[in-house]
Amino acid sequence: AGQLAALYALSQDGSAPPPAQTAAAIESALKAYTATVTQVEPLLR
Asked: I need a labelling partner for 14 at 20 to 30 A (CA). Which of 4, 5, 31, 38 fits?
């Protein structure tokens, strides 16, 4: 979530990285989030 907030702040700042770079960063953040949820979900049951 911190990464996404930082990316959002950058994009609002007008100094956003190139779209491909942003997409890759969001994709890796999503992958990390999905991996974390996959590990934690069984513990919550």
From this structure: 31
C-alpha to C-alpha distance for 2 and 25, rounded to whole angstroms: 12
> What's the pTM value of the predicted model, to 2 decimals?
0.50
Can you read off the two tokens belonging to residue 18? Answer: 């190139």
Distance (Å, whole) CA 31 – CA 3: 12
Residue labelled with tokens 């049951």: 45
Looking at the structure of the chain, the number of domains it has is: 1
- Helix axes of 19-44 and 2-13: crossing angle, nearest 10 degrees: 160
Q: pLDDT of 3-39, one tens digit each?
A: 777 766 666 666 556 677 888 888 999 999 999 989 9
**CB–CB of 36/18 below 8 Å?**
no
